[in-house]
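Quick one: structure tokens for this chain, please?
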Amino acid sequence: MDLKDVLAGLGLAESEDALTPDWDASQAAIPSGSFFFLEPAYVTTACERTFLPGDVAKAVLAAAARIAAEPALSALAWHFHYCLFRTQGYPDASVGRWPHLKGPLGSEAGLFYVVVLLSGLPGMQAVYRARGIPAEIFRNTLEQMRSVITQEYPASHGHLGLSAANVRWQTNHFRGNLFTLGRLQFQFGTWGGYQKARVYRHRTARTVVALADGGVRFRADGDRAGAAAVEDGPGVWSSEFSVCGGEIRGHPIDPVGRALPTRIRLPIVEWQQVVGPREPVLNIHIPGGGAPLAHDRCGESTRAALEFFPRHFPDRPFVTICCGSWLLDGQIEDLLPATSNMVRFQREFYLIPIGLDGQGLLRSVFGDPPPQDLMALPRDTALRRAIADFVSAGKRLTPRAGGCFLLPEDLDWGAEVYRRQKMPWAS
């Protein structure tokens, strides 16, 4: 169908810019006959194989029938299926701009995106079969999708479903790019997006040091300058990095995530780069849902990742495990006792500054948007109490670190290996 006809029929004229990319290509690729993912038999089987509850499956089946009966909705569903699962290079960011379909679909708006996501199930199953991945991991990896459809999305929209932003993330599961291994999820990624650092190891002592990339601006406290909702204050400085004269010269980042203003020199004969720009990594993701970040379970997940990926993806090696999250905000270590799960999690990694949003901790802990009256913050969890006490005392939250890495060779969960190192700049 012509895009303008679809937009007019569905009342989505304001979404033309978001839907124009690849529209002609998707329509040219339309197969003869009906779309397989809208057929009742397929939808029923897909719901069963993704373990959706019976009431949810019934709702998805009804939504698919409605989409199939309306040519404009069918054309839009095919376009989204094509962009997600049949073409390479469609920008993930563009998925987040796809329209909310409350106008044409009402309470079934979110179910439209469930139907679209389930259209990728054959590809997901093919990856698991080809790689010999156990059925238990298949089921566990889909648990987050089920939770979003039945809990997270209804909490904000009042009905079952997924948003376009949810689909953008869940597509990683269906493409075989992300796997749930116990408490944590692990995703293929590339170093050098938010990290802005390189990692070196001493050839004999095995000490690990992170050096900031050149040209990165830091506040006086060693965190990244220019972060949203954070005042940089005086003393902002820029890092330098070079390799010359047999030396690696740069500004070190200590394992608690602070960049230091004094440059150090590492002799190349003694130090080797182990993580650098564009190298393959495993990104950790920490699913929400209220489950404790139990220290032992996180260790089990990390050990499982170091077994799972070499076994099932020997052609996709990685140089480190890394993460960027509000849970790695160094303030948490100041606010909570050393026995806290979140503090213990942080201390297993080498932290790096990534420029966390100044409101990020409040949003993540108290909801988005965060409460305006900081003197009336709820105190129903240990972290909420700690933050409430902190701001009630007139203190200001200032984010710190936010990123981390753990080299596979250094995995000794519980040992806090990077905190115990003697750093080359220490006297």
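The two ends are 71 Å apart (CA to CA).
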